[in-house]
What does this fold into?
Amino acid sequence: MKRIIIFNASSSLYGAERGLLNLIKALKDDFEITVVIPRRGVLKNRIEKICPDAEVIIFPLAVLMSSSSPLYLLKFIFLNFFNFFYFLFYINYNKIDLVVTNSVLLTFPALCSCFLNRPHIWHIREFFPSRLVNYFLGRYIKIFSSHIICQSEFIKHKFGLKKKAKVIYEPLDEREYKVYRKEIAKERLNVHKDTLVITLVSRIHPSKGQYEFIVNMRDVLKNNPKLSLIIAGDVTPPTPRNIRYKRKIIDFIKDYNLKNIILTGFTDDVGLIYSASDICIFPFKREEPFGICVAEALSFGKITFYPFEGGLREVYGIFNDGYEFIVENVLKTIENFIGTEDRYKEIVIPQRLSFSCYMRDIEDTYCGS
It folds into this structure.
């Protein structure tokens, strides 16, 4: 059995990490898996639950970020050299057959594989705001990768990877979701069964637009006691800027006494959130690589508002469902709300986002490496 090492930039449990778990599920019967993550936490526990035989290494990693801080740059350069030499030895000594980078934010694994003449697969799940950074990073990715897998056609275009990259959409695995009756889900979230529930499901980050949305919704929330807004997610990465953004949200809620806004923090049971929801809103402020949370909301059959741009155009193309996020349209929908069917028996996942389709595409790429 071949040995594979997978590097992941974060230890949270959002987009890239959920992609990592799907990858492990698809490969666990064909490879001996080693996973490198920067810290302990819920991700490590989930990896060990999915694949008890996997080795999980906790190691500080040089993560590429949009920062001009001299302190960050010094730390990044030092860690990059340290990571490179340490894992150069590790990969060679442990006879690793295949190197995988699960994030565009890690650059050293590609160099390690090149020096040791090992095949390298790069999963591209995010991009940088700077076109220049994306341009040069795209060239680097093409040079140092045997195979490139992009999360969407949009990502593929962003890095100029038209010929070499393959698009494999992140799947929705129905086995991972528990669907509740709406009244039971609302009860577990301490929401009255007759309350109209709006949810914002994503990590808390300035690009996700949670603060700006609740500012626009302030009067509606204040004047409608039978309306609740649930913000499901937490800060990641925990940079000072992101932490300040969350504090801004909390302070606004307190200043205006908006008791019908609930912050759940990170939740591993997103099925509970979607089951309780009547309307799902994704007020993103910049283009998204794909939008797995939007795909989840649509699969649960919810009234869903999201921007029709970036990778979310592809989500709309797959589902042919949802509404473009415009605040005025959201307010009109709330005013005229008619309840949706309570799908407590199942969720409906399109074939293109099924786990079986994903597994077939992953096996075609990996078994050939």
About this structure: The first strand starts at residue 2 and ends at 7. The chain has a mean pLDDT of 93.
